């Protein structure tokens, strides 16, 4: 790789890192080409972008980021073979890795970066896979907010609601 290619790769990584809030680092070193391609396909289906990049280039791209990004906590995971998985949904890569590992022993989770929080080690995979996405949390909040209104409507539509409607009608007729 020439110096110009390295510089271009670093710039592309800087751009990508500045536009995502979640990414994972994984070790897929013992996978065959066929297995890696299958894993890439799974990632692509779930909207995850996978890149295999040299650790030094990843680190250089991270070093130029603002300090509040907290990328320095990830540096210890930048050893050996590294695939970086970019995602919009925090738990998607963990679910894909978990699904893929039902038939394969890798990839191993090296680190995950979720909105400035860093998770190091493969032992965090289960907890990361069980994280709820923003969409899931919003759906739960909406459901909870709708629940009281649904209870009132169902009460009004039930037999008790007919009695209330009858009383309101009688009061209206009496006032007229």
List keywords for this structure.
about 55% helix; elongated; alpha+beta; 5 strands; five-stranded antiparallel sheet; Alpha-Beta Plaits; about 180 residues; ribosomal protein; 2 domains
Description of the structure:
The chain has 176 residues and is α+β, with helices and mostly antiparallel strands. It has 2 domains: 3-131, Ribosomal protein L10, N-terminal RNA-binding domain (Alpha-Beta Plaits); 135-175, no CATH class. The chain is built from 7 helices and 5 strands, in the order αβαβαβαββααα. Strands 2-3-1-4-5 form a 5-stranded antiparallel sheet, covered by helices on one side. A hairpin with a 2-residue loop joins β4 (108-114) and β5 (117-120). The protein is elongated, with a radius of gyration of 26 Å. It starts with a helix and ends with a helix. The mean pLDDT is 86.
